[in-house]
Amino acid sequence: MATPGFAGRILLVNLTKKEIGELDSARYEPFGGGHGTAAAIFWELCVAPGGWDLQDAFDPRNAVALMTGPLAGTGLSYAGRTSVSGMSPQSWPVNWFCHSNFGGSFAPMLKLAGWDGVVVVGRADAPVYINIVDDRVTLEDARELWGLTTWKAQEEIWRRTSVHYGREWQELGQGQTLQRPAIVTIGPAGENMTRVAALVHGGGSGAGQGGFGGVFGSKNLKAVAVLGTGTVKVADPKAVRDSREWWETRWPVSAEFPGPAGIVHSSCMGCRGRNCHNRNTAYGRDSDNCAEAGWYAVAPPAKPTPQDVQLRSADIVQQLGLNAMETCFMGPMAFPVPPDFPVQPSVPAYTALGWYLKKMYDLGVIGPGTKFDTSPLPMQDYERGEFADIYGLAIANRIGIGDLLAEGTVRFAEKLGRLPEDFDTLLRLTAWGYQDHWSMPAVEWCYGNLMDARDINNHDMSLGPKPGLECADFVKILAAGTARNDPFWFDYSWQGERAYQTGIYSEAKARFVAWRQHYATYYKESALFCDWAFSNLYNRNSPDGRGYTPEAEPRFLNAVTGRNHTFEDGLEIGRRAWNMKRAIFVMQGRHRKMEKFAGYTYRPGASYCGFALELPVFDGSRWDWVNCRELYLEDRGVEQWKTHFYNTEGWDPATGYPQRRTLEELELKPVADTLQSAGRLGSPP
User: Fold this and answer.
1) How many CA atoms lie within 13 A of 586 on its CB side?
2) Which uninterrupted H or E stretch holds 263?
3) What is the rounded average pLDDT for all residues in the chain?
């Protein structure tokens, strides 16, 4: 019998063989659901059998998984997201096993249909979509959907189901419903296998990072549609209700994204209070408002893009199925830089494709007189909204220079012959080619990017000065919230020997990053708590400043599952899944020598694009908030930090390979055996 909170089954679809099967969820529960379960399945289906080099994300053997967590569909806030995992065509220089996730109603609906996830392998011989109605799963002809935008494709699938949304009860599957199918689909960008293609659900809840829309396109898979009429079993309904009321009463949640006047606000299914979907509700209560809303916002010295033009342009990126963060023109804002910094007069939040395209044009690298024709883009109209339309269509359909842009920023720069120089100057990218998400100077985000496969996108640390709190008291609150009680985890000393003793290159910082990766891998990527709410070590609404981490997470999970897991038990699940991911990376070729930051990180100006500038610093005798805007990394310090981190994780410090003792401690002996057979098992300590 399935553990409460889990449906007990994972759908397995082989498009090549036209086979529909299922996996037993209970086998993968030690990995927590979501991304953790997807990593275990990927190892089982793609790595352990051998037979290929795990390099090409567009290979039909790549398994892409859409997974739920145990809290989806239970009515708990901030817990209804869908995890997407598989090899990523966006990752550079290797198509690393990667992840993304999206909100909306897809995960709760999948659980109501009786499934914990959908795993897809192979390639259909013609376009199809997967149609799930409770137990009935079919492969439907999608040839007439091919070429449609994400919105039109969903409308057509809704039309085919003949469900009168919200108007009258209809018998369907095993029960009755007022709902229409929850659908995740691709647009032209995915169909044309661009590396910057998103999966889009509803009006704009999207899995953007990772290029998984292109993976769908490579499989001739247009969409996955699901309609469930069942229920989600929880162990203790009263405890679920009580835990939600306890949380919302003690730590009241206020709307974080008020948005422009006149815009309707909404949240993901089951969530309330955040209101982060504030574009419209015409295509469901899930129209996102993040990088998409500022996708077409040109950087200084150009005049600011009017808000109505930005909102209209957001529809372009949603309908075409483009990764907004990767293809945007600057993101939501720009930051001043030092006089001698090569990007003048300011650096955009994201040195993304739209911005970099214009920079290359202004420098004469592309355009008239060069070997790189910019057709069909009207570069003279770069500041007009019409340019965004043509730019999006060119990328999504690989027209003209759009064929190069469709490979993403880092590969576009590589094709222009601008690497590695632009890593030092123009481009703020992670080691793996993703846009840096203002991760400096809060270096735990930066280090997390390096050890994972993408920008980790963790917004959960609020480290600046807090009203009524001394810095020393603040770091004690943070330390207590981690359940490890080490204040030096939060020392951002970055100069001199203090940086090596207790600061950003120290063993304490390595342990903090390890904790954070274990936490995120389980609680945020596997149990699928929303990043906007978890973790929460400090909370301004609490009388003593303490957040709801580490109490809330196990309280919610235990109420649903009936387990008696502690917060530390969850961290151990995260450590297991994190080590499984590391083993996959190693089998793909990851080695310590590869884990180097992009060049700009090691030079002045690295932190000029960021928010958390005043951070806790211990000077050897006292704590205080210090402005760290000038922070940048030095290679010697990063190498010391890596050694500390590998030792903390139980990995070989010479190679970064997991050691057998670590894997067997995590009940991953078969993984250790496979690594040993491949000559990639870490040497014993």
Assistant:
1) 26
2) none
3) 91
